[in-house]
């Protein structure tokens, strides 16, 4: 598929109304039919948009039921009154992280926060189209709201993959425009798409045509020697004109040559002001910020300037931080975490996973950072990193690990 580079100029009225850019669907559709369930747009064939709405009842921390759709977030409004109220409302998200935010991790994080938006690892569109969908897309009903992140740059394939994911029950489909993966060199997806905003817009338009759930994008502020001013603006204007519901911005560049993915999360300097400036220019669009945010206090400060905050490594490495999310951002009454209840839930979950031929370590590895700073945390980590890996390890190892931690109020306060 060829994409001719072309200057983008968008009508601000279209942008404000979130209309798909005219012509996107035509361009995509001319590539042909992509799956058995199709609808026709002019001479085009795109996956038929699902109409069913998704309402999910969340099983919140420690078994409390809350109705996601009913709890519109009026109790806490992180946005100043000057800000426009937006239909997409996710003030707090846990970032997509390959190898980390798998379904077991998300289930665990959900026990700590009923309301945070949880992202999957990136899944390549081709894998969904040709691979084992159940393995790639299955998730637990408790995970909602959960967003699937897709990797790819072929609008037709992304649209088809998005449609399949929607049928699996995902609440949002996100496009990865920030990952400096190995395959970036071949230009197939990720951060290199920052250089071709028109392709990103085409992808979003196709995905929007295929699904009813929100379609969002996660990007960088630029790559390589791009000027983050026009580079980010072009991507943002393109995706919103194509109908995107939100843009999450990792507030640093990616350097495609010479840095590993890990270095690309650390070396290029953070530029939060660039993301704030984007939000100031697009007040009626959801702009979320990501990168280097360590605490809920920092997150709350960012929310003065943008609509959402996404934590990656801090949420994974010290998951206890998630226990404060509902009270800080969603108006839930502050409550101490009931770790015994949490471990009941996780032990039960792990037992069911093991009974289905899984291993305890698949679950336990995500819980290793939980008691950071508590007396006994070292022993806790040791048990989860060694004993939980042994063949035949059962959920009782989780209890043994918990028993190693001194949870007395005095130790928590120390
Ligand atoms: C292990 C790991 C895997 C990651 N995988 C993805 C991914 O699949 N998709 C993505 O958009 N970003 C990915 N990222 C980047 C994070 O989503 C996030 O943008 C980055 O870590 C910066 O946020 P932080 O400073 O809060 O961690 C990954 C990060 C880590 C640490």
What does this structure look like?
The protein is α/β, with parallel strands linked by helices and 414 residues long. The protein folds into two domains: 20-38 and 50-330, TIM Barrel, CATH 3.20.20; 339-413, Four Helix Bundle (Hemerythrin (Met), subunit A) (Up-down Bundle). Helix content is 35%, strand content 14%. The protein has helices spanning 12-17, 24-29, 103-112, 125-130, 133-137, 155-167, 197-210, 228-241, 272-281, 296-302, 313-317, 325-329, 339-355, 360-364, 377-385, 396-403, 409-413, and strands at residues 38-41, 44-47, 57-59, 65-67, 92-94, 117-124, 146-151, 172-177, 215-220, 246-250, 287-290, 308-311. It has an eight-stranded parallel β-barrel, surrounded by six helices. The chain has a two-stranded antiparallel ribbon with strand order 1-2. Helix 6 (155-167) packs parallel to helix 7 and helix 13 runs antiparallel to helix 16. The radius of gyration is 21 Å and the shape is globular. It starts with 11 loop residues before the first helix and ends with a helix. Residues 1-45 and 50-81 have low confidence and may be disordered. The chain binds flavin mononucleotide. The site of flavin mononucleotide has 23 residues, from strand 6 and helix 11.
Write the layout of secondary structure elements.
Elements: H1 12-17, H2 24-29, E1 38-41, E2 44-47, E3 57-59, E4 65-67, E5 92-94, H3 103-112, E6 117-124, H4 125-130, H5 133-137, E7 146-151, H6 155-167, E8 172-177, H7 197-210, E9 215-220, H8 228-241, E10 246-250, H9 272-281, E11 287-290, H10 296-302, E12 308-311, H11 313-317, H12 325-329, H13 339-355, H14 360-364, H15 377-385, H16 396-403, H17 409-413
Parallel strand pairs: 5-6, 5-12, 6-7, 7-8, 8-9, 9-10, 10-11, 11-12
Antiparallel strand pairs: 1-2, 3-4
């Amino acid at each position: 598929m060829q994409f001719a580079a072309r200057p983008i100029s968008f009508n601000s009225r279209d942008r404000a109304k979130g209309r798909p850019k005219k012509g996107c669907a035509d361009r995509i559709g001319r590539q042909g039919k992509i799956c058995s369930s199709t609808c026709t747009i002019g001479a085009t064939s795109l996956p038929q948009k699902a109409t069913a709405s998704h309402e999910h009842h969340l099983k919140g921390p420690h078994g409390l039921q809350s109705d996601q759709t009913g709890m519109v977030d009026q109790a806490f409004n992180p946005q100043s009154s000057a800000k426009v109220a937006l239909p997409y409302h996710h003030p707090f998200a846990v970032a997509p992280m390959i190898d980390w935010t798998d379904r077991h991790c998300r289930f665990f994080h959900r026990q700590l926060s009923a309301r945070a938006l949880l992202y999957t690892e990136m899944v390549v569109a081709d894998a969904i189209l040709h691979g084992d969908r159940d393995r790639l897309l299955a998730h637990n009903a408790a995970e909602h709201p959960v967003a699937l992140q897709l990797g790819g740059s072929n609008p037709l394939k992304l649209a088809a993959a998005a449609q399949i994911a929607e049928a699996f029950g995902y609440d949002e489909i996100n496009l990865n425009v920030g990952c400096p993966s190995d395959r970036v060199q071949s230009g197939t997806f990720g951060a290199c798409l920052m250089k071709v905003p028109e392709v990103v817009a085409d992808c979003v338009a196709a995905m929007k045509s295929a699904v009813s759930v929100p379609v969002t994008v996660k990007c960088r502020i630029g790559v390589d020697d791009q000027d983050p001013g026009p580079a980010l603006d072009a991507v943002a204007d393109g995706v919103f004109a194509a109908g995107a519901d939100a843009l999450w911005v990792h507030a640093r560049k990616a350097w495609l040559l010479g840095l590993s993915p890990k270095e690309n999360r650390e070396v290029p300097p953070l530029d939060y002001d660039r993301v704030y400036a984007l939000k100031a220019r697009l007040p009626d669009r959801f702009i979320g910020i990501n990168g280097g945010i360590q605490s809920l206090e920092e997150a709350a400060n960012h929310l003065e300037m943008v609509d959402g905050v996404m934590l990656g490594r801090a949420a994974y490495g010290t998951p206890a931080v998630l226990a404060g999310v509902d009270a800080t951002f969603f108006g839930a009454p502050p409550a101490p975490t009931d770790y015994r209840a949490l471990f009941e839930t996780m032990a039960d979950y792990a037992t069911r996973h093991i009974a289905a031929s899984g291993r305890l370590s698949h679950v336990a590895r995500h819980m290793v950072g939980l008691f950071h700073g508590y007396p006994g945390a070292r022993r806790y980590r040791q048990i989860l990193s060694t004993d939980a890996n042994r063949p035949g390890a059962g959920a009782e190892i989780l209890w043994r690990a918990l028993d190693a931690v001194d949870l007395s109020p005095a130790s928590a306060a120390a």
